[in-house]
Amino acid sequence: EVVEMGHSHWSFRSTPRHRWYGDKRIDRGSSGRKYEPAITTTMSMSSEFRVRTSALLEDVGRDVDPDAAASIGWLYTDGSVRVSKLTGRTSQGKDGRRRSISGVIIQKKEQHFNELNRLFGEPKLYNSESGCYTWNPSSQFWREAYAECGIDPEKPDWEYFILNCGHPARKAWMDAVIRAEGTVRKHGQIRVSQNSGELCEAIKLAAT
Prior knowledge:
By secondary structure, this protein is an alpha+beta fold. It has helices at 66-75, 113-120, 139-149, 158-164, 167-181, 198-207; strands at residues 3-6, 11-14, 19-27, 33-41, 49-51, 79-83, 101-107, 125-127, 132-135, 182-184, 190-192.
């Protein structure tokens, strides 16, 4: 017997008792819900389980511009974003498509300046006390980046983005995250520091 399971993002066919290795989301009380290594069978699979594969995902996905994906990656790691509330005014456009989006990137590591200048132009501010530079692209820049990536600026669906953006954009996003939050150890291992949450889970998903 062969069964098919999945959802709008992916699907697979296997025997009912096929064993899968991956991560299961477990409620740890005050520590929150966390993914932990686990094994399950096809028929026991649920939305709380995330399968690990033995090869990188190779798919076409949406034809997302890698620079837009990298820009979003920088914004949610070494940056901050503020989206204006919906007012219903015509100036915000239909469905709020022209709402103001204020997104800034703050960075002091000089090795990243060329990449940040390429993506965002010259920095707008410099803090002599902290040694940090600030890049502040326009609202239009961010609206176009969000639209290109298919991301809602108020409620980003990171799982959908990672699974549907295509390999070049996914790699560009992950490279930006590593530059901002990662360290490369002497033996080549890369470590990324990020608070638990949906973005952290997206980083794990993109890295596996």
